[in-house]
Specification:
By secondary structure, the protein is α+β, with helices and mostly antiparallel strands. It is elongated, with a radius of gyration of 29 Å.
């Protein structure tokens, strides 16, 4: 078995991983195997990236790789990894929940090596990012695809894990140095790539952590039909810096962002909407006026011109400026018709002065975008 260690120099995670782990107690991990099934394949390499904090030098991230020179050294690789990993508390990986971790756990059981991943907290980059494939406008969520999306780094490695299986089988026979180089390079660049793409965890943060609205203003413009339209523009301070420029639009709302800054554009509806009373049994409906009035003030209305209100006609009308909402974030909420699923709230002068309300509204819109994206 070979053990190869390297310093990554200035390369470090492009995300504040201290948000969810302790960096010096964290391993980035990637494995290489000759197949997907434990019983019919071999584990030939485990690679880790870890933070080294020597007393006399600046801290930096290193890689360590254990490579089996033949099939019989599989157990040695596992033992070396267990001895190294037992002092760590966190694992960061790419799709490790589905493959790397179950595969390793089964191999450990096969050799009766006492080690449980239940004692480590795992962060699966793939699992956290894959729901946002549509938002990111990516064809897939493979690691190399995400690397290309958020980084200008060009890999030296041009092989897939599947293509390296035959190269490893040949390496076992002749221990060719060039083949060893390609095997180690692929694993090393997967580890380096994880340090790069962990920055993309800012995308889930965008939807799940609060944003701060720093400026709100109205904008008036002509739409494609040359109609006069209005919108609200909100400048945002994002919870985590985005690693690349992003844009996304749905339901007439548009988001753009890069780094710490973002912007939301939300259409203003100007016109008449209806507010439907929930306690319609306490109201009369006046068909000629097409309005509902409370029974306490309806005694002057001739009985021939009033009728018991129903849920569908018990409403009041109001002409104003409104903003859309996709849940009852603000009340009272208005609709165009009773069966309409689109909800609005009034953009009052009082609301315009409440920055906290716009913070909640911006988060509400981003949550809507996330939900729409996941459908």
């Amino acid at each position: 078995m070979k053990c190869i260690q390297k310093s990554l120099g200035i390369l470090s995670p492009k995300y504040p991983i201290e948000n969810f782990c302790v960096p010096k107690q964290t391993l980035f991990i990637d494995i290489e195997t000759t197949g997907l099934y434990v019983r019919s394949s071999s584990l030939y390499m485990i690679g880790c990236a870890y933070l080294d904090e020597p007393a006399d030098k600046p801290s930096c991230w290193n890689t360590i790789q254990w490579l089996a020179s033949n099939y019989e050294e599989e157990q040695n690789v596992l033992n070396a990894f267990v001895n190294f990993a037992k002092s760590y508390r966190y694992l960061i990986h790419f799709n490790g929940n589905r493959f790397d971790i179950p595969y390793l756990q089964n191999k450990l059981q096969q050799y009766n090596i006492p080690f449980s991943f239940d004692n480590l907290e795992g962060i699966d980059i793939y699992r956290r990012l894959s729901p946002y494939k549509t938002f990111l406008k990516l064809p897939n969520c493979k690691q190399k695809t995400i690397e290309s999306f958020i980084s200008d780094t060009i890999r030296k490695d041009h092989y897939t894990g599947g293509e390296l299986i035959d190269i490893y089988h040949e390496y076992v026979l002749n221990h060719d140095k060039e083949k060893e180089y390609f095997l180690l390079l692929h694993n090393e660049e997967d580890l380096k790539g994880m340090l790069e793409i962990v920055a993309a965890l800012a995308i889930p943060d965008l939807f799940h952590l609060p944003v701060k609205v720093t400026k709100v203003q109205a904008n008036h413009y002509q739409d494609i039909k040359q109609n006069q339209s209005s919108e609200i523009l909100m400048n945002l301070k994002l919870p985590t810096a985005l690693p690349t420029e992003l844009s996304y639009g749905v339901n007439g709302c548009y988001f753009t962002g890069y780094g710490d800054d973002g912007k939301l554009r939300v259409p203003i509806y100007e016109g008449e909407l209806k507010y439907f009373y929930s306690n319609y049994k306490d109201y009369y409906y006046l068909p000629k006026e097409d309005i509902a009035i409370h029974k306490s003030v309806a005694s002057f209305v001739d009985k021939n011109y009033r009728q018991q209100a129903t849920a569908r006609n018990c409403c009041t009308r109001k002409i104003s400026s409104y903003l859309p909402q996709w849940d009852t974030l603000f009340t009272p909420f208005f609709k165009k018709e009773y069966d309409d699923k689109n909800l609005f709230f009034e953009l009052t002068n009082e609301l315009k002065t409440k920055r906290d309300a716009f913070n909640r509204y911006a988060h509400h819109i981003l949550e809507m975008m996330a939900a729409h994206r996941m459908e």
